[in-house]
């Protein structure tokens, strides 16, 4: 088996969490609330916090072993010359930041993630030879973020959270970015004619993918205005916002 498929199918690791969670689909649909905790004893993020082995397998699945090496081209409108500082919010293994910093030696990065993640993922950035240009910040993205950067990235974050929490995270980015800064969302927003139900996210987290129209309203409530949206060279749909 392809090693990335093995990670998803390993029933002793995070693959097992995804597989068994489907058993809670009917409850999730009937109640509109995830029943993940009924199966595994705790809600999703607390379950990961309590099980370092499952977290390691989750990090591997979302990192290069599972999802491959991310493409550093994350801007819809270009303009990298305006970017000297990037904050990857919920940056996980740091794989995206590593690729951006490798491609652009003039840029400095900050990885924000939960303390347990930040404590365990530095090696990828060191191996990429960019560790010297990265600050690691172990904190929640529901708290004020490191301020004043040119670019805030939210990759595969908003689709983990229902509207109230997603708006809070966007609001933290809007508050932290300087007036000409940008907030870029990769994952969790789809073009209006390509709505994506993301059933697994509903089962795990009561979260969802949003159409661009739905996202525009959420962003506005968080004091962000969409500047551009479109497909990146990687094929990924991205949305670029500026603070209002
Ligand atoms: C689906 S992963 C995406 C990781 C990374 N952006 C990527 O695309 O590979 C979600 C990330 O959010 C982090 N996370 C979850 N809750 C968080 C919180 N309250 N504050 C900061 N990070 C959090 C997780 O640790 C995880 O790394």
Structural class: alpha/beta
Mean pLDDT equals 93
Helix count, DSSP H or I runs of 4 or more residues: 13
Largest sheet: 7 strands, mixed
| Large-scale geometry | globular
Named once each, the bound ligands are: S-adenosylmethionine
In whole angstroms, how far apart are the ends? 48 Å
Low-confidence stretches: none
Fraction of residues in helix: 40-55%
Strand order of the largest sheet: 3-2-1-4-5-9-8
CATH topology of the largest domain: Rossmann fold
Per CATH, the class of the largest domain reads Alpha Beta
By CATH, the superfamily of the largest domain comes out as Vaccinia Virus protein VP39
Q: How much of the sequence is in beta strands?
A: 15-25%
Strand tally: 9
CATH structural architecture of the largest domain: 3-Layer(aba) Sandwich
Q: Quickly count the domains.
A: 2
Cα-atom Rg, whole angstroms? 17 Å
N to C succession of SSEs: HHHHHHHEHEHHEEHEEHEHEE
Structure description:
By secondary structure, this protein is α/β, with parallel strands linked by helices. The protein has two domains: 3-67, Helix Hairpins; 80-243, Rossmann fold (3-Layer(aba) Sandwich), CATH 3.40.50.150. Helix content is 41%, strand content 18%. The chain contains 13 helices and nine strands. A seven-stranded mixed sheet has the order 3-2-1-4-5-9-8, with helices on both faces. A two-stranded parallel ribbon has the order 6-7. α11 (163-176) links the parallel β4 and β5. The structure holds S-adenosylmethionine.
């Amino acid at each position: 088996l392809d090693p990335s498929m093995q990670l998803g199918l390993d029933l002793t690791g995070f693959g097992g969490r995804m597989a068994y969670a489907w058993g809670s689909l009917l409850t999730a649909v009937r109640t509109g609330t995830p029943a993940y905790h009924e199966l595994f004893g705790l809600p999703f993020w607390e379950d990961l916090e309590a099980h370092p082995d499952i977290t390691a397998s989750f990090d591997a699945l979302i990192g290069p072993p599972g999802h491959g090496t991310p493409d550093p081209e994350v801007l819809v409108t270009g303009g990298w010359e305006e970017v000297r500082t990037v904050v990857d919010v919920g940056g996980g293994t740091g794989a995206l930041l590593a690729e951006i910093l490798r491609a652009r030696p003039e840029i400095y990065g900050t990885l924000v993630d939960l303390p347990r993640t930040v404590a365990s993922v530095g090696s990828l950035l060191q191996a990429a030879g960019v560790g010297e240009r990265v600050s690691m910040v172990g904190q929640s993205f529901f708290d004020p973020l490191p301020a004043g950067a040119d670019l805030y990235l939210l990759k595969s974050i908003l689709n983990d959270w229902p509207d109230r929490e997603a708006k809070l995270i966007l609001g933290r980015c809007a508050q932290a970015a300087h007036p000409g800064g940008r907030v870029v969302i990769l994952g969790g927003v789809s073009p209006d004619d390509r709505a994506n139900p993301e059933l697994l996210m509903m089962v795990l987290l009561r979260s969802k993918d949003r159409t661009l129209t739905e996202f525009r309203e959420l962003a506005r409530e968080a004091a962000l205005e969409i500047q551009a949206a479109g497909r990146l060279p990687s094929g990924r749909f991205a949305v670029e916002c500026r603070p209002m």
